[in-house]
Amino acid sequence: MKSPKIYPAIWFNNNGTEAAKFYCSLFENSIIINEFQTAVTFELDGYYMMGINGGPMFKPNPSISFYVECDSVEEIDEKFKKLSEDGMVMMPLDAYPWTARYAFLEDRFGVSWQLNLRAEGNTNQKITPSLLFVNQKNGKAADAVKLYTSVFNKGRNLEMSHYGSGQGNTEGHVLFSRSEIDGFQFIAMDGPGEHQFDFNEGVSILVSTEDQKETDYFWEKLTANGGEEVQCGWLKDPFGVTWQIVPKRFMELISSGNPEQTKRVFDAMMPMKKLIIADLEKAAES
């Protein structure tokens, strides 16, 4: 099964497969695609995701949640019941000024979900990652949308509404937006108030690149103007959002079925920041 160009990756405390199986039980047309010791890939109602078995180092938080359009009251009630079990409800399932039925919660794996009852005429995709810009980043959502849609192919803003006077945030800040980059849709919103969370490695966005030239391009564009190189193909953009820039060739090299080759490639990758395909290939052949 071919993976998309861009997809979300969730960091789990070595229970990614357990989480993926739980999520697959909640969504129709869902499947575990591949299971590895370090990661699991799966689809929820056709939406491709990765779970990383990374240990306790990082945890997801509400800065990046998954917005789900539910097609009936029965569906939203059932998903709320199962996802909130042993989790934490941040906004209870109820009617709100913008929707007939909605909830914001964190499940038992620490992953945050926004459940919304789909309104008549709403044709948005089932699951969409939602980025919440809070604290010092409140007011930066529009800038982030502008950056992402300029860096990636087929970047476009699909909708954007702003806070008005007396709506609880600075007038002009982004109340809600939906954008698309190379077929990957995301929501971006500014969040008022003080919060005890921010963007981190708990949920990252993985970009699968064709070659070194494309790897270099995304690396340079997303680390420019205040971004940060991290390690092993991971970076933080100027807004603190974590991205993985991963050449397809790397995935081919570690999927050869040869454990010794896989170890050599991983060992070569570990000291790298940006991934260098030629050096990874050299390690595989040694």
Quick structural gist:
Residues 5-115, 125-246 form the PhnB-like domain. This protein has 286 residues and is an alpha+beta fold.
- Average pLDDT, rounded to a whole number, is 96
CATH architecture of the largest domain: Roll
Count every helix, treating DSSP H or I runs of 4 or more residues as helices: 7
Strand content: 35-45%
SSE ordering: EHEEEEHEEEEHEEEEHEEEHHH
Number of strands: 16
Distance between the termini: 30 Å
Gross morphology: globular
The number of domains: 2
How helix-rich are the residues, as a percent range?
25-40%
In angstroms, what is the radius of gyration? 19 Å
Biggest sheet statistics: 8 strands, mixed
CATH superfamily of the largest domain: 2,3-Dihydroxybiphenyl 1,2-Dioxygenase, domain 1
Q: Main sheet: which strands, in order across? A: 2-3-4-1-13-16-15-14
Low-confidence stretches: none
CATH topology of the largest domain: 2,3-Dihydroxybiphenyl 1,2-Dioxygenase, domain 1
Structural class: alpha+beta
